[in-house]
Design a protein that fits this description.
The model has no long low-confidence stretch (mean pLDDT 95). The longest helix is centred in the last third of the chain and has 17 residues. Strand 2, helix 4 and strand 3 form a beta-alpha-beta unit. The chain is globular and about 55 Å long. It has a single domain, classed as NAD(P)-binding Rossmann-like Domain (Rossmann fold, 3-Layer(aba) Sandwich), CATH 3.40.50. By secondary structure, it is of the alpha/beta class. It contains 11 helices and 10 strands. Helix 4 packs parallel to helix 5. The N and C termini lie far apart (41 Å).
Length: 301
């Protein structure tokens, strides 16, 4: 249960009979006995999940988690919907242009069955809000904008100081694939992964460093010059509209497996912690599980 009285905008109207009917089809994959199935589903039901960034991945994921039976969410995003969001984001339509993403996603998500507690942070993640946002969270999902460095660091610091939060997943889409980065209390810190000072201006060198650390497999197509035009000149990350649902599905699955303990089953493979990652590309049907650093040491910029 979320206890944040400052931000709790939607409170669950519990209906246990409806709850177990609506998650019924999931149960068959959660165990061999009803007791085992219900025990794993209860873990989903009781988990508190914070989604920092409710755009193309985070927004859809909020609904997916509620449909999976999660009943406690925290949503944060300072941005408002614009026309360029229509290619991929839930809530990006003529009715909601100019409205706050976190507020719209919360409203649409709550409307599914009203059996979910949702705390909304329309001011987004900042050094002032990060601690309050992470508080109570069992899991944190970092789906913030590519260029957010200082606020992202604040989120990760709050996570590391939290006695309850177990890990952070960061899952960006790149070209026609997706990455999964996992941060724990014992993993490499994001500040050390990026090697960028918190208050450094977004110069071409800084943006290239971000690209290098967030996109270990830089696509061969389109050209480097084309990508520089987008990332560096326009400061706008290109996103192919078909890709966010892939990232959302991968994120939902790996998160649910961790919450329920399915990732402990024989043969299951966990996401390695940073500086490792998992990469999945639909263009050439490749998957890579990387453990350890993939870049050479250099100074912070």
């Amino acid at each position: 249960m979320i206890h944040d009285t400052k931000h709790l905008m939607y409170k669950a109207v519990s209906n246990e009979e409806m709850y177990w009917e609506r998650v019924n089809r999931s149960l068959g994959w959660l165990g061999d006995t009803e007791e085992e199935q219900h025990k794993r589903q209860e873990k989903l039901k009781n988990a508190v999940i914070g989604i920092a960034g409710t755009g193309g991945i985070g927004g859809q994921l909020a609904q997916r988690l509620v449909r999976m039976g999660v009943r406690n969410l925290k949503l944060a995003d300072p941005d408002t919907f614009d026309i360029s969001n229509m290619n991929r984001q839930m809530g990006a339509d003529l009715e909601h242009i100019g409205k706050n993403k976190a507020e719209v996603v919360a409203e649409m998500t709550y409307a599914i069955n009203k059996d979910v507690n949702i705390a909304v942070y329309p001011e987004g993640i900042t050094p002032d809000t990060a601690k309050d946002f992470v508080e109570d969270c069992d899991y944190v999902l970092d789906q913030m904008e590519f260029y957010e460095v200082g606020n992202r660091y604040a989120l990760h610091r709050a996570f590391r100081n939290s006695p309850k939060a177990k890990f952070i997943f960061k899952v960006p889409t790149v070209a026609h694939g997706t990455y999964i980065f996992k941060y724990t209390k014992d993993s490499m810190k994001i500040e050390d992964v990026y090697g960028i000072k918190e208050d450094t201006p977004m110069s071409p060198a800084v943006i290239h460093r971000l690209m290098e650390r967030i996109i270990p497999h830089m696509p061969e197509f389109p050209s480097e010059e084309t990508l520089d035009k987008w990332f560096v000149d326009m400061k706008r990350m290109p996103i192919f509209a078909a890709c966010p649902p892939i990232a959302e599905g991968v994120l939902a699955e790996k998160l649910a497996q961790a919450i329920t303990g399915l990732d402990e089953l024989p043969g299951a493979i966990k996401v390695p912690c940073q500086p490792g990652y998992v990469y999945f590309d639909t263009l050439n049907w490749t998957t890579e599980i990387k453990k350890g650093k993939w870049w050479t040491d250099d100074e912070k910029i």
